[in-house]
Amino acid sequence: MGNRVRGLLPKYILTGACLAVLLSAIGSLRAHPTPSELAAPSSPKARQAQQPSPTSQPATSQAPASPAAPPSPGTTSPSAAPQTTPPAQPAGLNVVVLDPAHGGTDLGARGTGGIRESEIVLEFAAQIRTALESLGFQVMQTRQGNQNPSFDDRSAIANAQRGAVFVTLHIASTGMPGTARVYVMTDLPPGNDATGLISWDRAQAPFLSLSRKFGDYVQGFLAQRFKGSPNTVQAAAVRQLRTTAAPAIAVEVSSVAVEDRAALDRMAPGVADAIARGASAFRPSYVIAANPGERP
Q1: pLDDT at 131 over 70
Q2: How far is it, in rounded angstroms, from Cα 59 to Cα 208?
Q3: pLDDT of residue 37
Q4: pLDDT tens digits, residue range 223-270?
């Protein structure tokens, strides 16, 4: 038995060596595929291996072009039609100058219980300002606290504006409590000098008709809110209106003779609403010409 195994063993070793040589030769052949194998893979797996993965990109491919960024604000596309500048529009009513009357050492009308006109009109002005600003008006005041600007200084604030109206606020010393009335300046002769300029103390003359229209709007709304108030504006020689070169009215609330100041305080919202609505209604009627030399 042992001799038989020894006789066969060299054959198996030789056969194994030959097999190794054969496998090495085959491997060498597989490492160098023939041109036909390169042209036509022999198996589906080989064909799949040569195809690019769906997720891979060929080395020569380019990334897709990014979409063009939209033009930044303020830039114009070369192909866009040129924009033309709109013609200049006439300036309209934009500013309301509120004038709380009196102030400082000038207390105005005084009533029982320490009621002072100069204090009450300042509080009315605060509510009127809020109502006007809510409708888009710019509001300027001739005084913010307990000062007493001169008549000319108050008028100068309005005269320096373009597209403005002037409202001076007063509390009457007498009159039916709970009522309010609007005054405009009495008729004034033009009073032009040799140069054609209007003198300062007749600055209101060219604006009398506009002042009356503005006053009628405000008075109409006051009459709706406060029973007993007149329906139309009244004319009076109000010093503060005479030197104002703009539509100008005086609003007077009655009166400091009330026993309880709260009665006046309760009128403030209604007065503010009437003035704001009156200014808004008057707005389309007041157009200032674009040429400063033209009159409204």
Answers
A1: yes
A2: 87
A3: 45
A4: 999 999 999 999 999 999 999 999 999 999 999 999 899 999 999 999
Query: Is 230:223 a contact under the CB 8 Å cutoff?
Result: yes
Whole-angstrom distance, CA of residue 129 vs CA of residue 289? 27
**Quick check: 259 and 178 in contact, CB under 8 A?**
no
Amino acid at 198: I
Residue ranges and CATH numbers for the domains of the chain are 99-288 (3.40.630.40)
Contact 233, 185 (CB under 8 A): no
Question: Could you give the CA distance from residue 142 to residue 240 in angstroms, rounded to a whole number?
Answer: 12
For the beta sheet containing 248-253, the strands, ordered from the edge strand earlier in sequence to the opposite edge, are 138-141, 95-100, 164-171, 248-253, 180-185, 234-236
* Residues 170-207 as b or e (16 or more Cβ within 10 Å = b): bbbeebebbbbbbbbbeebeeeeeeeeebeeebbbbbb
Residue 158 has a CB neighbour count (10 Å cut-off) of 26
**Residue indicated by tokens 């003359």:** 205
* Residues with Cβ within 8 Å of residue 279, at least 6 apart in sequence: 93, 96, 132, 135, 137, 165, 214, 217, 218
Smallest CA-to-CA distance from 79 within 68, 87, 88 is with: 68
